[in-house]
Amino acid sequence: MKRKSKASITLKELKNSTVAGLNAEAIRELEEQEDAPKKSKYGNNRTEVDGIWFDSAKEAARYSTLRLMERAGLIRDLRRQVAFELNDGGTHSLKYIADFVYIDCTTSLQVVEDAKGFRTQEYLKRRRLMKNVHNIEIKEV
Question: Domain of life, per the record (predicted)?
Fold first, then answer.
């Protein structure tokens, strides 16, 4: 049984190739495709707010809302990208990184939030571990 091999060639090699026989328009199209931004796995768009880059527009919008809530005195101690160890003392480190952690001023309780657009199996596993290890329920927005 013969295996088919995929030969890959760079755009530069293609331009220099006499075999390809591409015209200038075809080369221009290939250059545009090469320069086009890559689409993210889950369709999210990186967004900047207050000089901070967020993985998604949803996360950026939530940050803006939380900042307003903090200024209004509804929450305090807003932090981003807070790591929680889920396998303390184990041979492998397993962490959950929360999008936001803050104190709700009405209840004086810590809130751990995640701006979720898509629940992966990996996230669901870490959410269960957060409950089991730290007794923390993640608030999904």
Answer: Bacteria
